[in-house]
Amino acid sequence: MDHPIRFETVTKSFGSLTVLKEVTFEVPRGKVLCVLGRSGTGKSVLIKQIVGLIPPDSGRIYVQNEEITSLPPRKLAAVRKRMGFLFQYSALFDSISVGENVAFPLRRHTTLSREEIRDKVSRKLRRVGLEGIQNKMPSEISGGMRKRVGLARALALDPPILLADEPSSGLDPVTSREIDTLFLDLKHHEETTMVIVTHHIPSARRIGDELAVLHEGRMLARGSAAELEESEHEIVREFMRSEGAI
Fold first, then answer.
1. What are the chain's domains?
2. What is the mean pLDDT of residues 208-215?
């Protein structure tokens, strides 16, 4: 089976604090892995390692069968183009319009004409239900809309892999469900492989093919929601019962 994302015994420490301890997992093509855990358990470190922002101390990380842990900067940049990243707080550029935010990776990484970029920006915004807001500034739209714009930008280069860090953070339940629906649509219609870091158990249940619980740097359990509910680890069962966890 094709596994676009694969970790092999990855360990990462910051000083005396070890945040990941020999973590091993893989994500099959077109599937969604939701990574759960309390704050400070290494979830954000894990997702940043997939894009090569934080190198591991030991172990290997593969993206589409290419080991990224030892790649030179230029080759790593090429691998990153195959991944979209939805940041926790969208990370939009406040000084430029919504349309220019979505266009940013297209201008930086493609040779598309101005007209082609404009058309693609329109399509991506329509894809996330925000047609016609290209000229608005990020400060003029709601938090949920900003999250959608961030998703449109993450999808601008049509990446086969999407990474999302706390996509439900700061959103009301209705908007959170709408974002989940967009993820499900990507999975079902474009076979996008996703790793989603979240505290939000209801979202993880809706969109995750597999859920993984990180605890004290280790991947304590991994499987379907039903399997985690029956885990031998009390902390995993307790986490799965915390339906309102954000």
1. 1-82+159-246 (3.40.50.300), 93-158 (no CATH)
2. 94
Structure confidence at residue 246 as a pLDDT band (50, 70, 90): very low
pLDDT at residue 1 in the model = 62
Question: Cα-flanking dihedrals φ and ψ of residue 77, to 5°?
Answer: -60, -35
pTM for the whole thing? 0.91
Between 4-13, 89-98, 126-135, the lowest mean confidence (pLDDT) is in 89-98
The pair of structure tokens assigned to 119 is 């058309």
If we measure between CA atoms, which residue out of 112, 111, 92, 88 comes closest to residue 101?
A: 92
Per-residue pLDDT tens over the stretch 75-87? 999 999 999 999 8
What's the per-residue H, E or C state across the chain? CCCCEEEEEEEEEECCEEEEEEEEEEECCCCEEEEECCCCCCHHHHHHHHCCCCCCCEEEEEECCEECCCCCHHHHHHHHCCEEEECCCCCCCCCCCHHHHHHHHHHHHCCCCHHHHHHHHHHHHHHCCCCCCCCCCHHHCCHHHHHHHHHHHHCCCCCCEEEEECCCCCCCHHHHHHHHHHHHHHHHHHCCEEEEECCCHHHHHHHCCEEEEEECCEEEEEECHHHHHCCCCHHHHHHHHCCCCC
Residue 174 CB coordination number (10 Å): 8
- Give the whole-angstrom CA distance, residue 100 versus residue 134: 8
> With contact defined as beta carbons under 8 Å apart, do 139 and 153 qualify?
no
